[in-house]
Amino acid sequence: MKFPASVLALLLATTAFAQTREVGPYTVHPIMPGVLRIEDANQTNPSGIHRDAEGKTTGFNNCSDMYLIVGGDQALLIDLSNDIKWDTTAVTSLQAVVAQEIGPRKLHIAITHFHGDHTGMLPAFKDNPAVTFWIQTDEFKGREIFPADRTVPIGGDSSLDLGGGVIVDAVKIPGHTDHSTAYFLRGKNFLFSGDGLGSGNGVWIFSAEGFTKYRATVDRLIATIRTPANGIDEQQLIVFGAHYWQKRDKEKLTMQYILDMQTLIGAIKAGTAREEKVTFGPYLNTNFISGEATITWNKADAEKFKAE
Ligand SMILES: [Zn+2]
């Protein structure tokens, strides 16, 4: 088959764009031009549970995902991965990936929440005077880790204009932590949600207060998505969690995932949620499941919520 030169060029460009690539411990997955997922896993240390030929567990990489959004004259990196100890090139590899993608653009860094598997590679950027930190500072009260003179606080919800029509809207989604924050890429129906909604395996809720906050978050998020002025097409919405590998066999997380969370909260209240014992610690002892949604929480606190 013979293609005209223009079609061939487009095909080649598309092929080049679509390729994932490994750089040190990282795998870079293009989502669309100017939007990338960077995972701290590679073929020698893949995501999830590692098993030998007999099925025995030999290792585990609970890798997390950073998302890089490249605008006209600025770029935003959301989250900073685990603190990688298993590859000595982690710092320089991450710096190289970001530099290659953003070129001369100014770099901002945003963090979904304070947990160490999302802030681990801060040393790669902390001392770079050209980098600005766009931070929900309430989340880091008492654990100030960002250079104060280059930290721009997000007060509640906030937006960042990266130039060229690329705008990121931050929305608070407390529950998993008190000030967890998610980021909408405006006009693209992408939601980068950290651990705030879970990544498919279940959202971890660490207290009764956390659950109360999460209930409000799910209602508010659905209302935000359905506010026409926000220009979000819920049919097209894709939720990108910070542990992307945990979506397992699901092709992607969509609006249905968020709606199932709302249904699940109602089912916990009604006592009709499917329950599964887990042992993620003394508090996290039960998965509550409905549809695509799982909330990993505490059986006794769920019983109290039911009785309220
Ligand atoms: Zn977390």
From TrEMBL:
It comes from Lacunisphaera limnophila. Keywords: Hydrolase, Signal. Residues 63-243 form the Metallo-beta-lactamase domain. CDD domains: metallo-hydrolase-like_MBL-fold. One of its GO terms (molecular function) is hydroxyacylglutathione hydrolase activity. InterPro entries: Metallo-B-lactamas, RibonucZ/Hydroxyglut_hydro, Sec-metab_biosynth-thioest. It is an enzyme of class 3 (hydrolase). Its EC number is 3.1.2.6. The lineage of its organism: Bacteria, Pseudomonadati, Verrucomicrobiota, Opitutia, Opitutales. Residues 1-18 form the signal peptide. Gene3D superfamilies: Ribonuclease Z/Hydroxyacylglutathione hydrolase-like. The keyword Transmembrane does not apply. The keyword Iron does not apply. This is Hydroxyacylglutathione hydrolase.
